[in-house]
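User: Predict Transcriptional regulator's structure from this.
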Amino acid sequence: MSDIGFRIKSIRKANNLNQSQFAKTIGISQGNLSEIEMGNSNPSAETLISIRVEYKVNLNWLLAGYDSTDGFTYDDSSEKKLIEEYRSLNDYDKNEIIEIVQLKNRLRSITSP
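Assistant:
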């Protein structure tokens, strides 16, 4: 089974769906899904987009098996969480967060030897 097929199967199983149900939600046949899950064929771009939209999965994880945002891989889950939360803020609040981080960095440079 290919890695992408395994990840697609894990999404399906996590949502408690059989192949027919899952395939219907992403617009492909059950047979096509079976071939993808077994690693005998690769999903089309349209299928990948359908999975991303329907199940809110990260395309980088789906394609490559690692979680990243905008091409950057975050090993630290708190850093990833910070980016996710930051993106949900309005522009005013984003600027305020940037100012807080800049202040923290200035204070650290003053107090560190």
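The chain has a mean pLDDT of 87.
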